[in-house]
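User: Small ask, check this?
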Amino acid sequence: MTNDSINGEAVVTKKVAIIGGGAAGLATARAFLRANGEMKSSTPQLEFEVSVFESRRSVGGIWDYGDDGYASETKEASKTRPMYRNLRTNLPKELMQFKEFPWGGDGKEASYVTHRQVLEYLERYATKFNLLERIHFGCTVKQLTVLDAGDSDTNEWPQISLGWTSQTNDKNSEETHKQTFDNVCICNGHYALPSSPPLLGIDNFRGRTIHAIEYDNPNDYKDLTVLCIGARASGADIAREIGLVAKQVFLSDSTCNEKREYDNVVVMPRTQSVDEEGGIHFSAKSDPAADEEWVATNVDVIIFCSGYDYQFPFINDKSNLNLECIPGERRVQPLYEQLWHARHLSVAFIGLPHSVVPFPLFEIQGNAVRRVSQLQCIGQPLPLPPTAERLAVAERDASSGGPDNAGRVQDTHFLGSHQWDYCRQLSKIGGFYNDEMEDYIATNKALYDKSGSERKGVVPGAKDVYRETRFKRDDGNQSFHILYSEIEAAVGKE
């Protein structure tokens, strides 16, 4: 943080680093830069100097499908991004949108959009708010180090050193850099490190195994028998898409307790094991030795649609930052409100909660972090408890198994229906909760519940007609209008 003066008035410049140029990074950059225009009359005058570090050559994060050959017909195994060529969102764009940058609602275009349309939206957002000039493309952060943390009770806001590499013009060499920042917002997403659960006897399987991150083209599975392990959003969509060309698709759902057949797509209970002959066993019970069991033979490909682990490759033993992130646990700790490092408030993690509407959540988190940082800089009381209390809350949250008290460490960052109160809480911390924000959150909930109920009614292997529904927001009434629906049209014909 530096102190200068303009026309005799004190000006405090606070350096903010944002790691990642995807949706979370863009929303956070916008939050800090927007504040610059709102703080010109503050005393002292405060300005955030924002630097975004993006390892790729473009914005968009996971929504940047790319065109660099990794998703070619014959090189699917080299694919390292979760986006696949035919993906359409499972949330309507009227719900996905940032609050200050509306999207859709005219009924002329589909509400459920392709990954290319999402990327175009993020590009327009970055252009609209002059974010591109703040982004350092081709830069990979290698090291984060907390400087002079000292007594955490008296130094909650230590400066942070970042070391990174940048690609040179010839792309055959790199340059190294280091700089000190007052705030670091980590927005590197959680769709880069595939997580595959252990499967008893997997070495006996005679076919091919991949993770969903490697999936791209359904035609690669034409006339094959495929098992998709995991029936949440990606697993269900991939099974539906492959089912159009495959001989048969098994979709293993851990919440299912019976075998259900829908043409060539068969929903099975939890996958238990692979026997010595390569047969795959499913059971309605958690005990692999349960009497009730089904077996699938002649499976050609297993696709693990089992999610991702969090990873922060730039945080290590040299970081001077107490952070625990164990592969397989899907839990980051210690965090206050799943956002701030509970001990060092100058480090924040944007976008960790899952089973949420991401873009609005990123926007609210970014604005909350910005507001707390602003108050600290101008010497105002913070809307956060003392260090000891934050650490106690972080410990409780990390051991609770999520808001549903499910007891599963992997659900620590699950929100689901709890995301709305979470958004309200952060809006209050950030000082921007009002009637308009409540209307926005309530409308998001209404859209989320409606789209979710339609999605759950889709039979595996059938056409996903819910994606043809077109919405228009009605925030004033905390509701929405359906401008077109194949579901409702079908009901009307019955």
Residues 454 and 466 are 6 Å apart (CA to CA). The first strand starts at residue 2 and ends at 6. Confidence is low (pLDDT under 50) at residues 68-77. The radius of gyration is 24 Å.
